[in-house]
Structure formats: C-alpha cells, structure tokens
Amino acid sequence: MNADRIQIQEGPSQVFQNRKGESTQLMEDNRVQSVLQAKMVETMQRDAMDEDDLQQGKFAVQRDVEDEDELLQGKFVAQRQTKNQTGIPDYVIQGMESSFGTDFSSVRVHPDSSKAPEVGALAYTQGTDIHFAPGQFKPDMSAGQQLLGHELTHVIQQAEGRVQPTTEVGGMAVNDDLSLEHEADVMGAKAASVL
Fold this sequence. Notes:
- The protein is of the alpha+beta class.
- It has 2 domains: 5-55; 82-193, Zincin-like (2-Layer Sandwich), CATH 3.30.2010.
- It has helices at 31-55, 65-72, 90-100, 115-118, 142-159, 178-193, and strands at residues 5-10, 13-18, 23-27, 108-110, 123-126, 129-132, 167-169, 172-174.
- The strands form 3 sheets. A 3-stranded antiparallel beta sheet has the order 1-2-3, with no helix packed on it. Strands 4-6-5 form a 3-stranded mixed beta sheet.
- Helix 3 crosses helix 6 and helix 5 (142-159) packs across helix 6 (178-193).
- Residues 89-161 form the eCIS core domain.
- This is DUF4157 domain-containing protein.
- Pfam families: eCIS_core.
- InterPro entries: eCIS_core_dom (IPR025295).
C-alpha cells in the first residue's frame, strides 16, 4: 500500500483516499462474468424450449457431424426421394448436381440417338432431353463426363431462357451462339474435373 493512499474495501468496488481526504472509487470489471451469465441464461432458456418441444411432440432430426461438415464444405447433395431416372449413373449425376448446384432429376439421356448426328453434333440438348450420337455417351470416362457437363450447361441455359433459335439444321431449330458454346465448354470441363 502506498503511503499517500488509504485503501477502503467496500463490496465489489474499492475506494482510495489520499491524505487530503479526496477519495477515488474504482469499480470492479464484471464484463467477463456478465457475458458468462448471459450465455448461461441463454442456454437454460434454449434447454427449456427444447424440453417444451419434446413435451409437445416436436422432435428435431439429429444430423451426423460428418453430414454437417460436408454441408459446410459444399459437398452435400440432397438425397433423392425417387429413383434416378436420368439414364446417368448415380455417382456422375450427383457429382454434376454438386458442381452446378442444380437438380438434374428431370433430365433424360438418350444414348445412341439419331437426333445429334442430324444436326452434325456429338450431342444435342432440347429442354431437359440430351441426345447423344451413337457411341458418344460415356459417363464413366473423363471425355464423356466433359461432354455431359457441356450438355447439362445447355439444359441450364435453356431453362433460364437464354437460348433462342438462331438457325435451322436438318429441320430442327438450333442456336449457334458461340458465347453459349464457350460457356458450356468451360462449365463442362469444370464439372468433369471434380468427379
């Protein structure tokens, strides 16, 4: 203790008095305790709400920690309620959906189709139908996944209304916009690279 000050303890604060009789009060810093107390109250309230929900028959589905990690990392793909009817292997369609962030359950693949060669293409997309020329649908190979990703990009472009017919080939309306083709090439390569 300093000779010039006299310390008087009064509860949570301290009072210092100098020889002239002047006093200074120092308050105790309770911020940490206040934060902890607020967190405890919040936890108790949440627990009480959980208990009320249980009593009312409201049950939460508990997720696996691994599922939560995958969700946070963007690796989560919602489980289908119905069987995959796209014609694309499950692991490929799930990888494509994850890469594009799009549900492709309405897509239908037509391997060995005559429509693609009629327009002079390896594959041809019309709405959600993808027609592959004979021997071109190879979803288990990198080049085939790249072509599939290219065509799935066209599915998205058409769904967004960005594709308007610009010409006609073999009696079919087609779009020959190079910027849409370039986008499909880039996105197809990107999607194939994550499988």
